[in-house]
Prior knowledge:
The complex is a heterodimer. Chain A is mainly alpha-helical. Chain A has helices at residues 3-28, 32-55, 83-106, 113-132, 136-154, 161-192, 197-202, 204-207, 221-236, 245-248, 254-263, 268-275, 277-281, 284-305, 311-331, 335-363, 380-394, 400-414, 418-446, 454-459, 465-480, 495-504, 518-542, 546-553, 555-562, 567-615, 622-645, and strands spanning 60-70, 73-81, 211-214, 217-220. The longest helix of chain A has 49 residues, at 567-615. Chain A is globular and about 115 Å long. Chain B is mainly α. Chain B has helices at residues 3-6, 16-32, 39-62, 96-112, 121-140, 144-153, 155-165, 170-199, 204-207, 214-231, 240-247, 250-275, 277-302, 308-329, 332-363, 374-377, 379-393, 399-414, 416-441, 457-475, 478-511, and strands at 9-13, 72-80, 85-91. A three-stranded antiparallel sheet of chain B has the order 1-2-3. In chain B, helix 15 packs across helix 21 (478-511). The interface between A and B is large, with 52 and 58 residues.
Amino acid sequence: MDIIHYILIPVLPLTAFVLNIVLGKFIFKKQAHLIAIAAVGISLALSIKAFMEASAGVVINQDLYTWIASGTFKVSVGFLVDQLTAVMLIVVTSVSFLVHVYSIGYMHGDAGYPRFFSFLSLFTFSMLMLVMSNNFLQLYFGWEAVGLCSYFLIGFWYEKKTAADAAKKAFIVNRFGDFGFGLGVILIFLNFGTLHYTDIFKDLGVIAAQTVMICGNEINLTTLIALLLFCGAVGKSAQLPLHVWLPDAMEGPTPVSALIHAATMVTAGVFLVARANPIFSMSPVAMDVVALTGGITAIFAATIALVQNDIKRVVAYSTVSQLGYMFVACGVGAFSAGIFHLYTHAFFKACLFLCAGSVMHAMGGELDVQKMGGLKKYMPITYWTMFIASLSIAGVPGLAGFFSKDEILWKALSSHSPVGKFVWIIGVITALLTAFYSFRVLFLAFHGTFRGTEEQKHHLHESPSAMTIPLMVLSVGAVVAGYVGVPHILGGHDWIGGFLGHVVGHAPVHAGAEASLEWPAMILSVIVAVVGIAAAAFFYLKRPELPQKIADSFKPIYRLLFNKYYVDEIYGFLIVKPCYWVSANVLDKITDKVFIEGIVNGVPMIVEWSGQKLRKIQTGVVLHYSLAMAIGVFLLAVLVIFGAGK
Amino acid sequence: MNATVCSVVVAGDSYVLTVAIFLPVLAALLMLLINKNRHSTIKWTALAASIANFIGVIPLFTDFDKTTAKMQFVAQYQWIRAWNINYYVGVDGISVLFVLLSALATILCVLVSWTAIKDKVKEFFIALMLIEGAMIGVFSSLDMFMFYIFWEAMLIPMYLLVGIWGGPGRLYAAIKFFLYTLTGSVLMLLGVITIYMMTGTFDMVKLMSTQLPVGMQMVLFWAFFAAFAVKVPMFPVHTWLPDAHTEAPTAGSVILAAILIKMGAYGFLRFSLPMFPDASQSVAPLMMVLSVVGIIYGGVICLSQTDLKRLIAYSSVSHMGFVTLGIFSLNIQGLEGGILQMINHGVITGALFLCVGMVYERSHTRLIADYGGLANVMPVFAGFFMVFTFASVGLPGTNGFVGEFLILIGGFTANKPVGILAATGVIIGAVYMLWLYQRVFYTDVNEKIAGLSDITFREVVTLLPLLILVFWIGFYPSAFTGFMDATVTQLLGRLRGGHMQALNMLIETVVK
C-alpha cells in the first residue's frame, strides 16, 4: 500500500470538514452528510486495507514534514501504522462510519445539520491523527484536537446552558490531565532528545537507573515520565479523579456520545498507555498505579450506575467503569487484553448509546427510565439490539464482552503482584454490578407498563432505517467481535493477543498452579454475570416495588450514590469557588487596585505634596531669603575648608 | 582621517526600511492637505499608503538571508558628526518579523476604523500613519539615539489616540499610560547617555559585541529594565495596560497589543541580553520568577473581569509572561519560542481586539453580562472568534501552541519548578477564555444584542489575514522560526562568551 493511501485516511475527513464548515451552511445544507459519509467511508476502506497489510507484517513508519524545529528540538508530522494502530484504525473508522449513517436519521431537521457533520469529520480526522502518529507531539496534537471536537459536540446545542457548561467542563478537566501529559512529553524530550516513539523506546535503557528529587523524595525517572503520561490518560479516559466531565458530556447529541464518549476518544488514554507500553513496563510502580486507578474507577462508577435514572448517564458511568477494566489490563501488563476490550467495547457500547438515542428519539427527548416502560412492543429492533449489547457487556459467554472481560480478569488474577489479585476481586464484583445495572435499564425501559405521558405514548415508534441499520450492524459486532480473541483454554488461538503482541509484547505466560485456576475463574465470571442479570430481573420484573423500599431503608447510601459521591460539589467547594474568590476579592480588588495602584498613584501624590510644602519656602520676605543665603554660605565655607583638608 | 567617515554612506544603502519608515510619514503629510470633510479620500489614502507600505516590506520576508546573523537591508548615513550619531537602520532575525507585523497591523487598523471613527477622521488617520512610521523605526533602528527618538515618538500619537478617540475614561487612561511609560523611558535615556559616555558610540551593532564592566552592566540593566518592563508589561508594573486597552479605540488597542507591548520584550532582546550579558544571566532567575507570577496572576485575575476588553488586556499580562519567561530561559527553545510568541500574541490578541471592536461598534457595550447567545446572532463572527479563542488557549495546530510549547521546553530546561508553574498557565488560560466565550456566544440570546448584523465583507477581510497566520504558524512554524535561528544562535554565543569573558576578568583580578 502506497504511503499516499495512508495519508488519505486522515486527510479525507479533514477535507470533508473544511468543505462542510465553509460551504455546508450555504450550499450543501441537508445534503451535508453525503460528503462526510463518503470521506469516512473511503477512510474505512483504506483502513481495512491497512489492517490487512499490518496482518501481513508490514509496518509503516514515515515522517512527512518537519513540524516544529528549534535547536536540537525537532518534531515531524509522520505516520506509524503497526498492528496496534491498525486495530485502532478499524475501530475508529468503522464506528465513525456507522455513527455518521445513524446521524442522518437522528439529526434530521436540526438547524445545525451541516455543522454537526463537519465536526464529526473533524473529530474523525483528529482521532486518526492521534492513533497514526509516530511521535508524542503529534499524538498530543490529536489528543487536544479530539478534545476540541468533544467541546464543540457536547456544546452542540449551545443555547442550553447545561450543554455549554458541560462542554467547558470537559475541556477544562481534560486540561488538568494534559498539564501532566505535556510535562511528561517535555521530560521525554529533555532526556532522549527526541519525541519519536521508536527512538525513545530504543534508548529506554539509558534512563532506567536515573532518579529525580521531588520534594526530598527520590523518584525513578521512568516512573515519573510514565505517571505524567498517565495523567493525560486519566483525564481523557475519565478515570478517578478526573472522571467528572464524562457523565455531563451526555448533554451532547447521542451519536456523539456513542462515537466520542464511548467508542473512540475516551479510549485514547488506553491507547496512550498501550503505545507507551515500553515505558510503563519498566516501572512497576507506575503499572500498579495504572491497575489500581482502573480497578477503583471501575467499581466506583459501577456503583453510581446502579441508581441513576438518566438512561444516558447510566451508560456513561458504565463507560467510565469499562475504561477502568482496560486500565486494569494495562496495569497488570496485559496490554493486548486492554486493547482487545477497547475493541469489543467499541461495538457493544456504541450500540447501547445508539439504542438509548433511538429511545430518546421515540420518547421526544425523554431520558428518565422511570418514565419509560413497555417500549419493547413499540420498538422491537431497538429492544433486541440493546438486549444483545447488554448481554455482551454483562459478560454472557459467547458474546464479545465475555471474551475480552474474561481475558482481563484472568490476566489480573494470574499476575504475580498482590495488586493484580486485588483488582481481580474488584473486577469480579464490578462484573456483577455491570450485569445488574445494564439489565436494570433494559427492564425499566422496555418491560412493564408505559409510565410516560399520553402524548409520548401516542408518538412511540420504531426509528427510521438510517438508525436501525447501524444498530443491527453494531449488535452483530457485539456478538462476533470477540471471536478474534478466543482463549486457548476454550480451544481458540487468542489471535488478537498474538497480533498485538508485535507491538505491546506478550503478557507473561503462566504455568502450573496458576493455570489450573483458569477454568474456575472463568466459571466464576459466568456465574456473576448470570446472577447480576437474574437479580435485575427479580427486582425490576418480578418485584418492581422492592427497589424503592430498599432505597428508602438505605437512604444515606442511596443518596451518596445518587449524588455521585458528591465529587462535583467537593471540587466546586475546594477548587472552583476559591479560585474565583481569590481572583475577584484579592487580586482584582486588593493587589491591583489598592496595592499596585496605590504605589503608582502615590508617587504623583508625593510629588504634589512636597511641591505644596516647598512652595511655602517662597515667602517673599527678604529677611528669610538673606537668612537662607547666610546659612548656605556658611555651609559652603565649612565644606571647602574641611573638605579640602582631606 | 578615515575614508569611511568622510563619505556620507557609511555601510549599506538599502532603501527598503527607510521607505517603510518614511512612507507613512509622507502619507500623513499628504493627508494634511486634504480637506478634513472628505472622509472617504482620507480613508482611501490611509489604506493605500498602508497597503503600499506592506508591499514595500515584503522583500524582508522573501529576500531575507536566513543563514546569517548579520544585519540585513542595512542603510547607514552620517547624521550628527560631532556626537558620532548616524542614521542607521537594518534588521536581523529578531526584528525582521516585527517590521512585517507592524505593516500588516496598520492595514487592519485602517480597515477596522473605517466606520468606527466618526469624529476628527483626518487627525485619526494621520496619527495612525505616524504611529506606523515610529513602530517600524523602533524595530529597524541600529543607532541608540535614533532608537530613543522613535521609542518616544511612538508615545505621542499613541497618547492622542487613547486620549481623543478613546472611551469615557480615556483621559485618566491616557495620562496613566503616558506617565508610566515616560518614567521608564527617562531611566533608559540615562542608560543610553551612560553607555555613550563610556564607549563614545551609539552604534548598537558595535555595542552588541562590546564588553562593558560587569558592575556597570548591572546598573544599566536595571535602567533599561525600567523602560522595557513597563512596556511588556511585566508584573507588577502592568496596571496601565488594562486601563489603556479598555479606553483606547479599537485601532489603539490593536496597536498596543500587537506592536507596542512587543517593544519591551524586543528591548530585552536587542539591548539587555547582548549588551549586558553578564547582568542578564545573573538576574535571569529573578526575571523568570516575575514572568511566572505574571502568567498566573494575569490569568487568575481574568476570571473576575466583567469587561470584555479588560479581560483580554489582563490575558496579555499572562501571555507576555510566557514571552519574558522564554527570553530569560536563555536557551534556544526559550528564545525562539519567546520571539515567536511575541508574533503569536500580536496576531491573536490583535485579532481578539479587532473582534471586540467590531461587536462594540454594533452594541456599544463592553460588558460581558450584556452579551449571550451571540453565536446565533452573528454566526460567522462567532466562528472567527472561536478560532482566535483556541489560538489564545494554545491548542495544537494553532500558532499559540507552538510558541507556548517551545517556551515551556526552554523554561523547563532552565529551571524545572518555574517550568511546571508556568505550565499551569495553560489550564488557567483555558478556563477564562472558554468561560468568556460561553458567556458571550452561548446560552440564550440576550435581548440587548438581539438583531445585530453579522460581520461585513470588509470585516471578514480584516480578520482573514490573522486567521491564516494562526494556522500557518500553527502547522508550519519553521517558516517563521527559520528567520530566527542564526541570530538567536549568535545571541546565545554572545551570552555564553560574555560569561566566559567576565569569568576571565574575575580570575585576572583575583590573580592580581
